[in-house]
Amino acid sequence: MHLAQELVAYIDRLATLPDVYLKIRAALDDPDVSIPEVADVITTDPSLTAALLRLANSAFYGYARKVESINRAVSLIGLEQVHDLVLATSVTALFAGIRPQRMDMARFWRDSLRRGLLAREVARLVRGMSPERLFVAGLLADAGHLVMYVAVPDLMAMVLDTPLQDNDTLPDVERRIIGCDFAEVGAALAARWQLPVSFGVLIGAQLQPPSAGEYAASAALLNLVSAAAAKAGGGPEHEYPVHPESLSLAGIDAETIEAALEPVEAQLDMMMSVFGTGQ
What we know:
Elements: H1 4-11, H2 19-28, H3 35-42, H4 46-56, H5 70-77, H6 79-95, H7 105-123, H8 131-140, H9 143-151, H10 153-161, H11 170-177, H12 182-192, H13 197-204, H14 216-232, H15 246-250, H16 254-274
Helix pairs in contact: 1-9, 1-12, 2-3, 2-6, 3-5, 6-8, 7-8, 7-14, 7-16, 9-10, 9-12, 10-11, 12-13, 14-16
């Protein structure tokens, strides 16, 4: 049996966040940092610069005029949101070369982006939620599975081949066979990378939103959109079980989530291209 931290320690030898992200996070920790200073750090990495400009000029934001500089992009998007988007682009680039056995990476990225976009779309309708932060939490919500497929492929194969018992869910089987579920591993990864606390809490509590404390409403939203996005992508319902308190905690209804799926699907191919995950 394995602890989530053990699995993350294994993949940590394969994947660490790039220096440019760490420099941007350090800069944003300074309350007096300026937009030009943050832009200067971003432009030291050409691939990150190109990715952020693609994002700023995409339908994700829909600005009327073309954004031609990182300085302008940071000014329009905002410092906290830039942090979250830099994290998103860094993680997608980081995992781009990983090809675990029995994991369809094209489906993984499509499902992850659908979930992130749906979380953002719904969060925009709920007062007090951060759409960009929910987008990134949705994008990273299944990162625990990626770690598990790389670190313990034989055990994950056993999970996939195990017939479900009454009322079983995929996380139940993972806990029985591996000793932890994908949400626990995802939270451990967020802690290992020293991401803002909210990411670890949201990812770790996505199956049990009431345990997220002050982040319970956002964790409930993540729980709901994960199930809806998986269903929209043709995935089995037992992968991302809906918690019975999620609708009331998030303050939304199932119809709102269903209605948000249409614009998300319309954006999905474009966002796969923007993040370089369409291959």
